[in-house]
Write a structure and sequence with these properties.
By secondary structure, this protein is α/β, with parallel strands linked by helices. It is built from 14 helices and 17 strands. It has a seven-stranded mixed β-sheet with strand order 4-12-11-10-7-5-6, sandwiched between helices. α4 crosses α11. The chain starts with 10 loop residues before the first helix and ends with a helix. The relative contact order is 0.15.
Length: 414
């Protein structure tokens, strides 16, 4: 009996079906991706791309990494979901691992972990910890201008960009924004009515901009003096993205926050988030005050444990530092590049005005086979898998140089 071959479904076909079935929250997708291995992905028409965005800093081990595939498959074949009425060995082991990774100088009994499903959920839980700490006596929470903490209502209240906030106002109140990096402004805003200060060590949506040297230390001193919590959002920067487990370990050695939030790279592509709290903050949420049906799911926890084990066993923190530093130095020499910001494999490539909008350049690079994005009008963001090869990085540098050279030539001829 002959088999009837199904007709090929093209990228255009999938895109039309997408627009007819999926809410228009993201616009038309740039490509329909169907396969990935390592730092490369393939679209529905068979074109291969080098993925330098990794699902926006998520796929830290790349696509279809054997360790993650094996861990998820084995866990799912054994126990897939239990709810939080029960627990699983994977959940307990992950919580123990995260306590030691995030707070290496604190005793295990001082630290507790809440597992969620995303960065927004982790920041939502951190916001609730701040409210439990502050109560009616401390109604204010401070956040930084140019911050991004997520799309849920609480996380959105902590997010500065008006375009994200305004369609959903009124948001939870009491959040006040201060200029990022301005210690004097922070000191002026701080007071006994502040429950917490929330900080990203590197502001990704602002164009991959590090908090200035000394700011986190000053923030710790000011919050401690005022009795406020220091909450560090490591959703994008944590789990090795900077070349250390946590970006604040690198940027402010010795600073110990009260709460740290994680997600993105934690699961290597499997949705998971975490809130890691120490000291008094670790005990503020009590039974019945917060929860999530899927948080701590055994499959997601197994994926996260595989990510941690692989980063350790393959010394990927060193790899991230070394490749990131070399790549940034080479990118900074290209005509049309004004500066390269960030640490490790989270980099913002600043572009001169003459080359035009970064979004147009990102589109040209996509056509050339490289996935990046443009968080700001003159910035490209690079957040590739940690398994990116030297050859793949060099190929991008060469292609970006050619694209920028062409645009500079066009600008000079205009």
């Amino acid at each position: 009996m002959s088999q009837v071959q199904e007709p090929t479904v093209t990228q255009q076909d999938w895109t039309q079906r997408y627009t007819g079935a999926v809410m228009n929250t993201f616009g038309t997708p740039q490509r329909v991706l169907v396969h990935g291995v390592g730092a490369q992905v393939t679209d529905a028409d068979g074109k291969v791309y080098t993925d330098l965005l990794a699902g926006i800093a998520v796929n830290c081990l790349g696509h279809a990494h054997p360790a993650v595939v094996s861990a998820v498959s084995e866990q799912l074949s054994t126990l897939g979901h239990v709810s939080n009425i029960f627990t699983s060995p994977a959940q307990v082991r992950l919580a123990e691992e995260l306590a030691g990774i995030v707070f290496p100088t604190r005793a295990a009994e001082e630290t507790r972990v809440f597992l969620a499903n995303s960065g927004a959920e982790a920041n939502e839980a951190a916001f609730k910890i701040a409210r439990r700490h502050g109560g009616s006596a401390r109604p204010r929470v401070l956040a930084l201008e140019q911050s991004f903490h997520g799309r849920t209502m609480g996380a959105l209240a902590l997010t500065h960009k008006a375009a994200y906030r305004e369609p959903f106002e009124p948001l939870p109140g009491g959040v006040h924004f201060v200029p990022a990096g301005d210690v004097e402004a922070l000191a002026e805003a701080m007071g006994p009515d502040v429950a917490a200060l929330v900080i990203e060590p590197v502001q990704g949506e602002a164009g991959v901009r590090e908090i200035p040297e000394g700011y986190l230390q000053a923030a710790r001193e000011l919050t401690s003096a005022a009795g406020a919590l220091l909450i560090v959002d490591e959703v994008q920067t944590g789990m090795g993205r900077s070349g250390e487990w946590m970006a604040h370990h690198l940027l402010a050695p010795g600073v110990v926050p009260d709460v740290v939030t994680l997600a993105k790279g934690l699961g290597g592509g499997v949705p998971i988030g975490a809130v890691v709290a120490t000291g008094q903050a670790a005990a503020l949420l009590q039974p019945g005050q917060h929860g999530t049906t899927f948080g701590g799911n055994p499959v997601a926890c197994a994926a996260a444990l595989a990510v941690i084990d692989t980063i350790r066993s393959q010394d990927l923190l060193t790899r991230v530092r070394e490749l990131g530093d070399r790549w940034a130095a080479e990118l900074s020499t290209l005509d049309g590049v004004s500066e390269v910001r960030g640490r490790g494999l989270l980099r913002g490539v600043g572009l001169v005005d003459a080359v035009g909008p970064a979004g147009e350049i990102a589109s040209q690079l996509l056509e050339a086979g490289f996935i990046v994005n443009a968080p700001r009008p003159h910035t490209l963001r690079l957040a590739p898998p940690f398994v990116l090869s030297d050859a793949q990085a060099d190929s991008f540098t060469k292609t970006l140089g050619q694209v920028l050279a062409g645009r500079l030539t066009q600008a000079g001829a205009a």
